[in-house]
Design brief:
Distance between the termini: 47 Å
Number of helices: 24
Helix content: 25-40%
Structural class: alpha+beta
Strand content: 25-35%
Largest sheet: 20 strands, antiparallel
Length: 979
């Protein structure tokens, strides 16, 4: 229910794009018009409207009118094409403009594009940019003179003004022409092939002239259009926007043009709070990586991403101090719980993901493989396929095959994944830990596989190495694509890509200071004992979480992002050099040559730690970290000295955590699975289902670390609301609020429906209308009384039945039995009230929620459409990325997919499940998931489209319980598995 302050401000939020004064005048005009209109006939009178003549296409804004080329377009819309070109160094600038004989209102008819090579072949075209020439159709009512009073004209004008305020500006503009601008080489006349969205193709003759003043004007106009188009592409793409970012930076340097104000600034929504910003770095937020890339492309130092203008420095300062962490508050249970053998060999600073058995590992791996090896694909497909899990297996040399599936259960008692981080896309610090049933057989099997791999590949070596706490065998290639340490202690064998983890494993075996020996883990095992037989048991210790925030870890994370950006930059620079190559001369490939030619910034590779990028044929590796995707684990790359900028940056982070978040709480998660039969005669006939039961805890839990939101919940309660059987989604929370009074149960439910589109409910009025159409209700128990305390009896309304009142705005309220329930639809309220009850249950909680099986519901269609729209936008962005490689960097069509993979570090994939293919007729990359008659995905999900989430989701229930020293979340999810 809106607060009194919210109810008193509808006008201020009605038309958010207009000023309050305009709105006030508008509504005053309405009332005044009603008074003077006279009668209904006059009120409804409409003056004849004279059609507005479209404005002529504006002249080419480059001084001279330009040359008039041959007619372009179909007979019904044939017009003369205007051409302007001026020579320059290193490029000339040209513009081709096609006026439309019949202006187009609404969506654009499609841009002009340069298609193919110009003639003669000695001329080359570079960096085309297209835009529509649009004009406003007449003046809107707010800009027209005020008409005289009488005959309803003023009221008619006010009505038009209201429509103007409430609608967008798109309908007031029309396209009167299309324009493409580009750079070219040489100073001789040439012909260039031009096409539009229909595939119409013609050769346009271009005759360059020498005019330095005009060249500067045209270059400025081209640059403004180029940077504006780059910004639009960066804002719209789901793929890393590295092509437009690189082009803007490279062309700015080569042509001595100013960088746009937005360049390298990142997303305005990104937080400047040191705590949240650090989470973005740790989580690999796209905005952080894009900022690092932008600064590297422009030749700036990495610290500029943090608004630190200090020039690049030498790393000569010692590591800054870490946050001042508070000592742990937990104590081990009086009776030590039973422990698995694996936990007694895990270093406390490692996360611990235990499968319990080889069979459980195979179950999880098979579930992952059902979604292409990426568990995140269970929700939606990404635009890049990294195959990170398979890459880690190849790096460790522990790939699963048919033989290992057969022999694994006989030699492996228990299995776990351990590590210091989970940076799988770039190179994680991880390992696989085995508890062997038969150590000899497991050791022999692993060593046999490692020997075969080394013998079959000359780039891979296998040797014995000595670590500080024992010996190991190392299987390795120079680029770290294969990096595998094998160490053994007692019945356990560890295979890891990290020398640090391998040595710590051996040290823990000697000292006994393992994860199992810590008080926090013992407490976790007392809450979640071995008897649970979890399919997956995950534990993230406070030491592991603190390790991610250690100075050496965070600063190296920054440096490896720089290394990743540099490798991508060299790839793009090589493409640009290839497209600019002069016929008969060798293409620049070497990094120094690319720098000298301006395709890389002058200070490219100037890093504080002295590392850089080197090239071996077509392979690029970082001199310290190796190949992209399998970078040297951060745990093995300690930072010893830092720059002043790095020290200052990390100091801010350490101070923020010391002051605001001085302790990190361990996280423990247990997952259990069970298969259950399905009624063969039911709607899910033949469907194979599993139920996953998830139990997660943060223990010990310190609410003071999490701010005010941790204080919003009331005490745990055993009251669970009973909802109507046809409620598809329901949620309840036990809250403590000064506004509501004593702790109160708030609850809400939605029945099966097709909710309004998110973009259609912007603004207060739209939200109000959306809520009126949504079949659902909101309630509280016991009755909080907050509504009854509203002034003027607004919360009581007018009685319309027993216990039922109608409030202002068409909202209905029922009170009775301690309940207060609100809904805009009285029939929904009446049908649901008999089922509502506050029942006592065994399990206490503050928050409970339920989502029924969406299969066959209207809500399924809505969810499918929402996720389809996201995937469709990403699909289009992926195709545009491939098209930009062709149009802007001249990459041959048959090489585009492979070159894109080298730039992105993963293979482009269509999030709609199709394949990207080049369409010769349209001269563009499209997806096979798109309709044949469109240049992009359909606006609505096709009948045969199903988002990955809905292919397996069959319902879920969850509850959250917050105690003084524990936070517990329980969930049950039913999933459908592939047959």
């Amino acid at each position: 229910m809106p607060s009194p302050s919210e109810q008193s401000t509808p006008i201020r939020t009605l038309f958010p794009e207009k000023s309050f004064l305009t709105k006030a005048v508008c509504f005053a005009g309405v009332m005044f018009g009603l008074l003077i209109a006279g009668d209904a006939a006059v009120v409804n009178a409409q003056l004849p409207v004279t059609p507005l003549q479209p404005a002529p296409i504006p002249p080419i804004p480059f001084g001279a009118p330009g040359q008039v080329a041959q007619p372009f377009g179909g007979a019904a819309n044939a017009v003369d094409v205007r051409v302007q070109a001026v020579t320059g160094q290193p490029y000339g600038v040209a513009v081709i403009e096609m006026p439309l004989r019949n202006p187009v209102v609404g969506p654009s008819p499609g841009p002009l594009t340069i298609d193919g090579e110009p003639a003669p072949a000695s001329t080359k075209v570079f960096y085309p940019v297209s835009n529509d020439v649009r004009v406003t159709v007449g003046r809107p009512p707010s800009e027209q003179p005020v008409p005289q009073i009488g005959r309803g004209r003023l009221l008619n004008r006010v009505g038009n003004l209201i429509r103007e305020l409430a609608s967008s500006d798109d309908a007031k503009e029309q396209t009167v022409g299309r324009r493409v601008m580009f750079l070219f080489s040489g100073d001789q006349p040439f012909s260039v092939p031009v096409r539009d969205h229909l595939g119409t193709l013609t050769m346009i003759d271009v005759r360059p002239v020498a005019d330095p003043a005009l060249a500067r004007t045209m270059q400025t106009a081209w640059w403004e259009e180029t940077t504006a188009a780059a910004k639009r592409q960066i804002d719209a793409t789901d793929t890393p926007p590295w092509v437009p970012t690189y082009l803007v930076a490279m062309l700015s340097g080569r042509l001595n043009l100013p960088l746009p104000a937005w360049f390298g600034r990142g997303d305005e929504t990104e937080s400047e709070d040191p705590l949240l910003n650090t989470l973005e770095w740790i989580g690999g937020a796209a905005g952080v990586a894009n900022e690092v890339f932008a600064v590297a492309a422009a030749g700036g130092a990495l610290q500029q991403t943090l608004n630190d203008p200090t020039a690049a420095q030498v790393a000569a300062l010692p590591l800054p101090a870490p946050p001042v962490w508070q000592p742990p508050v937990s104590t081990a249970p009086i009776e030590p719980p039973a422990m698995e053998v694996l936990a007694e060999h895990v270093p406390p600073e490692c996360f611990y993901l235990r499968y319990g058995s080889f069979e459980n590992y195979l179950w999880f791996r098979d579930l992952t493989l059902e979604y292409g090896g990426d568990i995140s694909r269970m929700i939606t497909l990404r635009g890049i396929s990294n195959e990170s899990a398979e890459r880690l297996e190849r790096q460790l040399g522990v790939q699963t095959n048919a033989m290992s599936r057969l022999l694994g259960p006989s030699v492996i008692e228990d299995q776990a994944l351990i590590g210091r981080d989970m940076y799988l896309d770039d190179g994680a610090s991880m390992g696989v830990l085995f508890h062997a049933k038969n150590v000899f057989l497991l050791r022999s099997s692993l060593n046999s596989d490692r020997t075969k791999l080394a013998d079959s590949n000359d780039a891979v070596t296998l040797k014995k190495v000595e670590l500080a706490n024992g010996s190991a065998t190392l299987l390795r290639s120079s680029d770290n694509k294969v990096r595998s340490f094998l160490v053994e202690a007692g019945p356990c064998i560890l295979v890891t890509n990290s020398e640090t983890i391998a040595d710590r494993f051996l040290e823990v075996a000697q000292t006994g200071e393992s994860l199992a020996a810590t008080a926090d883990f013992q407490l976790a095992r007392s809450y979640m004992p071995l008897e649970r037989n979890d399919t997956i048991f995950a534990y993230f210790s406070a030491e592991m979480l603190q390790g991610l925030l250690a100075p050496s870890y965070l600063i190296e994370l920054r440096r490896r992002m720089q290394a990743e950006a540099d490798i991508a930059l060299v790839r793009l620079a090589r493409m640009a050099a290839r497209s600019n190559a002069v016929l008969g001369e060798p293409v620049i490939q070497e990094i120094d040559g690319l720098i000298n030619a301006g395709f890389l910034p002058e200070n490219f590779g100037d890093r504080a730690d002295g590392t850089g990028v080197v090239s071996f044929a077509n392979h690029l590796v970082d001199t310290r970290r190796g190949a992209r995707g399998t970078f040297l684990p951060i745990a093995d790359n300690p930072v010893e000295m830092v720059t002043a900028s790095e020290s200052r940056w990390y100091g801010q982070i350490a101070a923020a955590y010391s002051d605001q978040f001085s302790s990190l709480d361990p996280i423990v998660i247990g997952v259990q699975r069970e298969e259950f039969p399905i009624d063969p005669s039911g709607p899910a006939s033949g469907e194979r289902r599993e139920r996953l039961t998830i139990h997660a805890e943060i223990a010990p839990w310190q609410p003071e670390n999490y701010g005010s939101w941790a204080k919003q919940l009331g005490p745990p309660t055993q009251v669970a609301m009973e909802f109507a059987p046809d409620d598809v989604v329901s949620l309840q929370a036990h809250v403590a609020s000064d506004t509501l009074g004593p702790p109160t149960h708030l609850f809400a439910a939605i029945k099966d429906s097709f909710p309004p589109e998110p973009e259609s409910i912007d603004g207060l009025i739209s939200k109000f209308r959306a809520l009126k159409t949504l079949p659902g209700y909101l309630g509280a128990w016991p009755q909080p009384g907050a509504l009854d305390r509203l002034p003027l009896g607004l919360g009581r309304g007018q009685p319309v039945g027993p216990g039922m009142n109608r409030l202002i705005g068409g909202l209905y309220r029922y009170t009775g039995g301690g309940f207060s329930v609100l809904s805009f639809q009285p029939d929904v309220l009446n049908a649901s009230l008999p089922h509502l009850a506050a029942n006592e249950v065994d399990d206490p909680a503050q928050v409970r929620g339920r989502i029924d099986n969406l299969k066959g519901t209207q809500l399924e269609g809505w969810v499918n459409q929402q996720l389809y729209e996201r995937a469709a936008a990403a699909s289009l962005a992926g195709a545009e990325f491939l098209n930009s490689l062709v149009a802007q960097l001249g990459v041959p069509v048959d090489e585009v997919i492979d070159q894109a993979e080298l730039v992105l570090g993963g293979r482009p994939q269509c999030p709609l499940g199709g394949d990207y293919q080049f369409d010769p007729a349209r001269r563009r990359f499209i997806s096979t998931a798109w309709p044949l008659d469109r240049l992009g995905p359909a606006p609505f999900a096709p009948a045969n489209y199903q988002t990955p989430l809905l292919s397996w989701f069959r319902g879920a229930e969850a509850r959250l319980t917050q105690y003084t020293n524990r936070l517990i979340a329980d969930a049950t999810i039913e999933i459908a598995r592939a047959q």
